[in-house]
Amino acid sequence: HQYCDQGMYRLRLFYKGNWQDVVIDDFLPMQSNDNTTFSRSKDLNELWVSLIEKAYAKVHLSYENLEGAH
Predict the structure, then answer these.
(1) Among 14, 18, 20, 67, which one has the highest count of C-beta atoms within 10 angstroms of its own C-beta?
(2) Rounded to whole angstroms, what are the CA distances from 49 to 17, 41, 45, 52?
(3) In whole angstroms, what is the distance from residue 36 CA to residue 22 CA?
(4) In whole angstroms, what is the distance from residue 68 CA to residue 54 CA?
(5) Cα–Cα distance for residue pair 32/19, rounded to 1 Å
(6) What pLDDT is stored for residue 2 in this prediction?
């Protein structure tokens, strides 16, 4: 229910058998209709789905490298 005033988030993801700290900002790819381009919560006031996906994309080096992104 709280957003980070600095716009930075640290998430811990279990990836390839290890825990990794991933730091991301809260800039998300957006469509022209003000919806996020990729995953989002049904509740548009919740960012957690988009932030987890962004962190996951970061460890994969880009959104395009995620399965199903094409």
Answers:
(1) 20
(2) 22, 6, 11, 5
(3) 20
(4) 14
(5) 35
(6) 55
